[in-house]
Amino acid sequence: MQPPIYVINLDRSPARLVSCQQRLNTAKVTFERIHAVDGAALNDDQLHSFYSAERNQKEYYKTLTPGEIGCYMSHRKAWQKIASGQSRYGIVLEDDINVVGDLSHVMQALNSLSFNWDTIKLAPYKTTQRSIAHSVVLTEQFNLVTHTKPMTGCAAYALTKQAAIKLLAHSTEFGRPVDTDIQHFWEKNIHVFSLMPYPIQQDLAFNSEMQDRKQRRKSHRARRLKQQVSAFLRNKIAVKQQIRTLKAELVNTTETCSTVSSVIAPSATSSSSVDYVRS
Q1: By the 8 A CB rule, do 10 and 94 touch?
Q2: What is the pLDDT, as a whole number, of residue 260?
Q3: N or C: which end of the chain has fewer CB within 10 A?
């Protein structure tokens, strides 16, 4: 059964919506359009309805652009749909995506998870690669991966109802871009995984119309370094805890269903581990 799928699209970007719709039609899935918040069209009061300059100074090294503020507010609209809906989880897509995997297999893999996984990234940020700390074989097609740091970007991700409620509660004021905020997952008491190989990729022929990250802004180097050091240490602890929690969930699943066998093996990338889950 297909979960609700939400596509974030600006009113001034009809061509991107048409392109995205064609790709999703080919993948044989339906979706609901989220009217994206156009940060460039907001006045100062509207921009600061959620964005906090005070939190930005404490949490991020650059002032957010109107596009980044609008992008975060747009994702909040999708979270509200998931939080108020009847489904256990939903999928959020930005409109600049390419479907490179079988989405029916994606849904089968997601539906096979019996624990509260919170957030699963379905696409990388552009061509970014990140080291893997732990990997679980879910199906013949996909692994559930914990990265040493959650993947950047929010082009495509699955989000549980429980996690959507938590993200909404922790973003009534925000000071970071939405993907950076999710990377600080320990603050929200959520987990962030990736489904790999990624079934969705960003279409690099499109520039991001929501975020405007290339806009020139003053970068506070000392503030950035302090934030990065603090985040590095807290992320390292939180990733280890996420892996411990996942392994405990797998043990519980084994004891309940007697269908899970685990083999710990060294990963080909650094010191990560792989759990093999077979039914």
Answers
A1: no
A2: 38
A3: N
* Tokens at 87, concatenated: 């489904």
**Nearest to 272, CA basis, from 130, 135, 124:** 135
Distances (CA, A) of 205 to 9, 51, 201: 16, 29, 12
Say what the pTM is: 0.88
- Per-residue pLDDT of 84-119, as tens digits, reads 999 999 999 999 999 999 999 999 999 999 898 999
User: Measuring CA to CA, which residue among 132, 101, 134, 108 is closest to residue 201?
Assistant: 101
Average pLDDT of the residues in 152-165 = 97
Domain 5-276, CATH number (from 1.20.120, 2.60.40, 3.90.550, 2.60.120): 3.90.550
Q: Taking Cα atoms as reference points, which of 240, 90, 236, 235 lies closest to residue 163?
A: 90
